[in-house]
Amino acid sequence: MYLLHTTNLTLQSFYAEIPNYAILSHTWGEKEVTFQDLQNRDKDKSDRKIMAGNGSGSTSGKNGTNYFFLMDSCCIDKSSSAELSENINSMYRLYENAEVCYVYLPDASSEEDPRDPGSRFEKSRWFTRGWTLQELIAPSASVVFLDHSWEEIGTRYSLRDVASGKSPLGQRLLLEDGDLTKYSIAQKMSWAAFRQTTREEDRAYSLMGLFDICMPPIYGEGGAKAFMRLQQEIIKTSDDRSIFAW
After folding, report:
1. 3-state DSSP assignment of residue 196
2. Bridge partners for 192 per DSSP
3. SS3 annotation, 127-172
4. How much is the average pLDDT of 186-204?
5. Which run of H or of E encompasses 68?
6. Residue 244 has pLDDT above 90, yes or no
7. Which of 15, 112, 169, 171 has the highest local Cβ count within 10 Å?
8. pLDDT tens digit string along 105-136?
9. What is the spatial distance between Cα 148 and Cα 100, in angstroms, rounded to a whole number?
10. DSSP element (H, E) containing 22
């Protein structure tokens, strides 16, 4: 895995003895910093872009770690199909093992009460995306919501009633130990029912971690085939018949 060093903004690879790291969850915008940007950057010009684009400088000191891992942007070489497949299959674990997960919400504000019916927090695009479901559930440590200025709005614990309100996802899962074995296949599927992904295949791939499934992503196979493969892999390891009800 690649980790972004928050002081010198260089990528470093680790295969064993992985240091403590924080992880960033966000929805993609128009000007994302990529793996290639970091590898081929003009240091004087791009460091400012990197700091502004991912907020690593704003958050690195909050958790005491020297590394910041950006799961879906600059820490994955998406030009490598093998690396992309490896990261998709290990994504849930990477969020689970992080020291802290920062959720950046560019369309929310810490100046608003997130429980107000019209708050931008409640309406944030982040709660509608497929990949962010596991990013909300997986971390075993703290999940901290940050607004457009990187100011803290609250945590998964303090805002569990609001954070679970976008789907049938229960507060208990966010409050307790995150034990997914307590929930049926149909329940887990229902959590993602109204979430969307840019690539249709990702509706299936983004659920792999919730079911502890590994399978190679095949972009171009279509959403129906990807979901069928996911169901077939689930059936191999589970006798939960609620999958047929779903």
Report:
1. strand
2. none
3. HHECHHHHHHHCCCCEEEEECCCCCEEEECCCCHHHHCCCCCCCHH
4. 91
5. strand 67-70
6. no
7. 169
8. 999 999 999 998 888 998 999 999 999 999 99
9. 19
10. strand 22-25
